[in-house]
């Protein structure tokens, strides 16, 4: 084995390369140099190791988060200041069981494993791991070489980090000249792992949000249920000059109409029955920071008027108070519905809509994000593996294909539920926690979600639901009444098709179940 430090696989750190490409070349070169089955570079983040670059592991492994306390091999590598080797007779479980791309779904045979902890700027950064299927691969010479290689990897990580910091600082200085960016803010600006994906649509959106984050413009996040609007609200706040101040989340759909004004703007003692003390609202709680109004379309019209005044004047007035108060809050709103339609039917103020949508940000649905679905599935697989105490949990090839081709009306939230349900089904059908549990496509049950089964016709079958009519054409009616009639009939038809199952009806109507129940109550369909 050649052990010279000037081997051609070493990346020239002075060459200008995209950070991911630099690290990918480095890891790929290490795999070829050591003639091993897999190499992985993992970053330490709050007790978890996140794969940054892998070579030889299945692609969904990049979505996993390995809890250090659950993986003794990774914990041992982190704890030592030198190369750690696990011989072929080691009894410690391997975190990559079932994840090698040459042995998909199979337990790792007797093999060698070694790794080394990485430090950047004197702090633990992560680990570098190597797995070889051929025993005896990692001899004394290989271990010595890895110790030297670790220095190159740390240097590449350091260069990548410096490039990112320069980029973050230049963006901050162009937006806020003279504002210092301390280490805590830089770490926050660089830690974007919460939003998982590598698709062009997602990366482009993240760059756009970083740019708008530097302003104080109101932002309206648009997207279907489950696409991650709350994550993007956090992302925007984290990249804004307000990141050191609070981010306050308000679910407008969960606010009782009678208390919505008090929750947002606060109240004075005696303002209403039960108001025994003065109480600040969510705007005051978010002072200097960001107020995230989720499902903003659900706000009552009376509250919409007060919100408009706050956006215009930067003032709030507590319920029962005589004097207004100044507030310094950036508003980010989100909705999964068409506010334009609500403006047309009179349930949402046009002037407030224009104030909130100064900068609309459409978030792409999961079906438009390509292989991001597999990265996200990897994260949910690892969560369920740990939650259920499994040795390993992974997807079969046909399950991966099914995930790629499913329409995902519930987006990321639905994906999480599908993976969790499939893991439970596998256990209930006899899978052993000590084996590699492979989820087949049938366990995902996506066909049933795509096309819910209908009851076979019988002599006693109920009459088919009446065809859907937008509204009876025989009598002119006001627009609001016509809209209510249209919504009522659409809900009735969906419930008839799904035999009274509200959750499935909501999925067909592409509306959140809680919002569907709320709408049904307003239309007089529920008590």
Structure description:
This protein is of the alpha/beta class. 42% of the residues lie in helices and 14% in strands. α17 crosses α18. The N and C termini lie far apart (77 Å). Residues 1-5, 174-193 and 451-475 have low confidence and may be disordered.
Task: Provide tags for this entry.
42% helix, 14% strand, 19 helices, 527 residues, 6-stranded antiparallel sheet, disordered N terminus, alpha/beta, 15 strands, globular
A few lines on this structure:
With 527 residues, the chain is of the alpha/beta class.
State the helical fraction: 40-55%
Gross morphology is globular
Identify low-pLDDT runs.
1-5, 174-193, 451-475
N-C termini distance: 77 Å
Give the topology, please:
Blueprint: H1 19-34, E1 38-45, E2 48-55, E3 66-67, H2 72-79, E4 84-86, E5 112-120, E6 123-132, H3 140-175, H4 183-190, H5 200-213, E7 219-222, H6 229-238, E8 247-251, H7 260-265, H8 282-285, E9 290-294, H9 301-313, E10 315-316, E11 325-326, E12 330-335, H10 339-345, H11 350-356, E13 359-362, H12 372-388, E14 392-395, H13 397-405, H14 411-428, E15 436-439, H15 441-444, H16 446-450, H17 479-497, H18 502-509, H19 513-522
Parallel strand pairs: 7-12, 7-13, 8-9, 9-12, 14-15
Antiparallel strand pairs: 1-2, 1-6, 2-3, 4-5, 5-6, 10-11
């Amino acid at each position: 084995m050649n052990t010279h430090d000037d081997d051609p696989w070493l990346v020239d750190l002075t060459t200008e390369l995209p950070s991911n490409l630099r690290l990918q070349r480095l890891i790929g070169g290490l795999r070829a140099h050591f003639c091993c089955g897999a190499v992985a570079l993992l970053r330490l983040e709050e007790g978890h190791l996140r794969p940054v670059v892998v070579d030889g592991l299945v692609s969904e492994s990049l979505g996993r988060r390995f809890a250090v306390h659950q993986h003794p091999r990774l914990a041992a590598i982190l704890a030592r200041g030198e190369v750690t080797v696990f011989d072929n007779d080691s009894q410690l479980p391997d975190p990559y069981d079932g994840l090698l791309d040459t042995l998909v779904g199979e337990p790792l045979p007797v093999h060698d494993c070694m790794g080394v902890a990485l430090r950047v700027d004197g702090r633990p950064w992560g680990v570098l791991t190597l797995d070889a299927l051929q025993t005896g691969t990692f001899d004394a010479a290989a271990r010595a070489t890895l110790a030297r290689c670790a220095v190159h990897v740390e240097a590449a990580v350091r260069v990548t980090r410096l490039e990112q910091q320069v980029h973050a600082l230049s963006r901050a200085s162009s937006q806020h000249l003279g504002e210092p960016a301390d280490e805590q803010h830089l770490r926050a600006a660089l830690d974007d792992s919460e939003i998982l994906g590598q698709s062009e649509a997602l990366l482009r959106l993240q760059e756009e949000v970083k740019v708008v984050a530097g302003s104080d413009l109101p932002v309206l996040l648009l997207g279907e249920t489950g696409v991650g609007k709350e994550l993007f609200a956090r992302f925007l706040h984290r990249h804004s000059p307000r990141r050191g101040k609070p981010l306050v989340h308000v679910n407008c759909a969960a606010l009782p109409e009678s208390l919505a004004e008090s929750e947002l703007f606060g109240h004075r003692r005696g303002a209403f029955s039960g108001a025994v003390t003065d109480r600040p609202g969510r705007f005051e709680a978010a002072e200097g920071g960001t107020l995230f109004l989720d499902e903003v379309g659900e706000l009552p019209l009376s509250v919409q008027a007060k919100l408009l005044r706050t956006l215009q004047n930067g003032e709030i007035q507590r319920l029962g108070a005589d004097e207004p108060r100044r507030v310094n809050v950036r508003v980010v709103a989100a909705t999964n519905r068409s506010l334009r339609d609500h403006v047309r039917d009179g349930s949402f103020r046009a002037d407030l809509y224009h104030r909130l949508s100064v900068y609309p940000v459409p978030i792409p649905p999961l079906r438009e994000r390509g292989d991001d679905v597999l990265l996200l599935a990897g994260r949910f697989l690892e969560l369920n593996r740990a939650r259920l105490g499994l040795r390993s949990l992974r997807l079969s090839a046909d399950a991966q294909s099914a995930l790629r081709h499913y329409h995902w009306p519930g987006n990321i939230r639905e994906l999480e539920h599908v993976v969790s349900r499939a893991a439970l089904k596998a256990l209930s059908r006899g899978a052993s926690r000590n084996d590699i549990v492979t989820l087949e496509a049938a366990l995902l049950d996506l066909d049933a979600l795509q096309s819910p089964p209908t009851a076979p016709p019988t002599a006693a079958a109920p009459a088919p639901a009446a065809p859907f009519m937008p509204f009876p054409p025989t009598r002119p009616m006001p627009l609001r009444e016509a809209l209510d009639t249209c919504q009522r009939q659409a809900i009735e038809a969906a419930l008839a098709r799904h035999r009274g199952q509200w959750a499935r009806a909501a999925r067909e109507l592409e509306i959140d179940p809680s919002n569907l129940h709320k709408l049904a109550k307003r239309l007089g369909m529920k008590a």
